UniProtKB/TrEMBL annotation:
<dbReference type="InterPro" id="IPR017517">
    <property type="entry name" value="Maleyloyr_isom"/>
</dbReference>
<keyword id="KW-0413">Isomerase</keyword>
<dbReference type="GO" id="GO:0016853">
    <property type="term" value="F:isomerase activity"/>
</dbReference>
<dbReference type="Pfam" id="PF07398">
    <property type="entry name" value="MDMPI_C"/>
</dbReference>
<dbReference type="GO" id="GO:0005886">
    <property type="term" value="C:plasma membrane"/>
</dbReference>
<feature type="domain" description="Mycothiol-dependent maleylpyruvate isomerase metal-binding">
    <location>
        <begin position="10"/>
        <end position="61"/>
    </location>
</feature>
<protein>
    <submittedName>
        <fullName>Maleylpyruvate isomerase family mycothiol-dependent enzyme</fullName>
    </submittedName>
</protein>
<dbReference type="InterPro" id="IPR010872">
    <property type="entry name" value="MDMPI_C-term_domain"/>
</dbReference>
<dbReference type="InterPro" id="IPR024344">
    <property type="entry name" value="MDMPI_metal-binding"/>
</dbReference>
<feature type="domain" description="MDMPI C-terminal">
    <location>
        <begin position="74"/>
        <end position="169"/>
    </location>
</feature>
<dbReference type="Pfam" id="PF11716">
    <property type="entry name" value="MDMPI_N"/>
</dbReference>
<dbReference type="GO" id="GO:0046872">
    <property type="term" value="F:metal ion binding"/>
</dbReference>
Amino acid sequence: MHDANSLGTTSRWLQESPRLPLEAVAADPDAPVWTGTGLQPARWWVRRLLHESVVHRVDAALALGVDHPIEPALAADGIAEWLGLLAARPDTAVPREGATMHLHATDEGLGAAGEWMIRGGASGIGWEQGHGTSDVAVRGAAADLFLALMRRIPGDDDRLVVAGEREHWTTWLANTAF
């Protein structure tokens, strides 16, 4: 059982804590800070926390059974951020060495920011924004691609079109959990 004082303290902490990292970054956005991917500019954390918050907002919406729209540009940036995190992990050798995967967001206006080419390598993955031919291509709205990568919708959801070697996509999803 919690007393009113501890609940008040918790409530204040929940309300005030989101501004703390923003204030720290605002002091010097280019200051090198620790991240799970090595030293990065402090502003790296704002992007990381933004996408983490988006995913948890979706989790809450799914639990409540309400809609959870994500703007296409935000979802596309979330995909790029996620790929950057995975590329920084040397143990992420999915797809297998030499295999390729293309993600293509079908939203209007994203251009090259809505396409990602991923290549498997001996020591991890490489990726770049852009169009190309691949062993498997996955097409859908940026939000749906992002939610599939985050395991919030199944990889075989009807909102996604998978063409080519489907096994590359299912193996990717099975081996790239956060």
